[in-house]
Design brief:
This protein is mainly alpha-helical and 235 residues long. It has one domain. 58% of the residues lie in helices and 6% in strands. The protein is built from ten helices and three strands, in the order αααααααααβαββ. A three-stranded antiparallel beta sheet has the order 1-3-2. Helix 1 packs antiparallel against helix 2, helix 2 packs parallel to helix 8 and helix 6 packs antiparallel against helix 9. The longest helix is centred in the N-terminal third of the chain and has 27 residues. It starts with a helix and ends in a 10-residue tail after the last strand.
Length: 235
């Protein structure tokens, strides 16, 4: 219980930092640079991390050994290529978003991996056909001035994700973003799937989003989940 209170306090403190950060950026009349955003992301993820190591240290020797064994096995869940692609996905999908908006993209990407229907690895999920628009153009690259920041983001995400199953990460990120764990899709809020004159979305994409339910908003993105199947409700 004490640990839970500490975690909530740290998260709220980190969110205040984000709020102050965005206020400063707004008053300056410029959007945050990727380098500045990375610094805030580091604080957010550090605050949102559940301290599994502390829980293991309180356990008996047998449980501690088993916990260490599981963690070593889980460290191999994400390859270097996975983390590189995840960082590039954040860059291309949400470079102009706040740190919370960028974490929303991370959350949905990991939620897709946890769901098991978009691919078995992060690489499969991110490079799946017609899922993330930037992957359709092989010429799309990280700009030279942002390469170092993207590399730092990769290191931060690697540390945060190490030893954690995708569903675990999604739950942790949901506490920070307030986007429900059920969110598997997102789009720009100003893209209107109900407008017949909307040309930035294909008819197929419009049809998809009409079938989903909106579950949250962060910055310029709306987040969606699949519709609830009430026929399976247990009441």
């Amino acid at each position: 219980m004490g640990m839970d209170r500490i975690d909530r306090s740290r998260i709220e403190g980190a969110k205040k930092l984000v709020s102050d950060f965005l206020k400063d950026e707004s008053s300056s009349g410029q959007g945050p640079s990727l380098q500045e955003t990375v610094k805030v992301l580091r604080t957010l993820l550090a605050a949102g991390t559940v301290y599994a190591g502390a829980a293991v240290s309180d356990a008996g020797p047998a449980q501690a050994r088993e916990g260490a064994k599981i963690e070593r096995a889980q460290q191999e869940l994400y390859s270097k290529e996975d983390l590189t692609l995840l960082s590039e996905n954040v860059y291309h999908e949400a470079k102009g978003e706040s740190p919370l908006g960028q974490l929303g993209v991370v959350q949905v990407t990991l939620a897709r991996l946890a769901a098991g229907e978009f691919g078995r690895t992060l690489r499969d999920v991110i490079l799946a056909k017609n899922q993330f628009s930037w992957t359709r153009d092989e010429k799309v690259r990280v700009s030279p001035e942002d390469q170092e920041a993207v590399k730092k983001l990769q290191e931060i995400l690697g540390t945060f994700m190490r030893g954690k199953e995708p569903a675990h990460i999604v739950r942790e990120l949901s506490k920070i973003t307030y986007v429900p764990t059920s969110a598997l899709f997102y789009k720009r809020t100003d893209w209107n799937e109900h407008d017949p004159k909307e040309e930035r979305m294909s008819e197929k994409t419009k049809k998809l989003f009409k079938s989903l339910r909106v579950v949250g908003y962060v910055d310029k993105h709306s987040f969606y989940a699949k519709p609830i199947d009430y026929s399976k409700a247990k009441w």
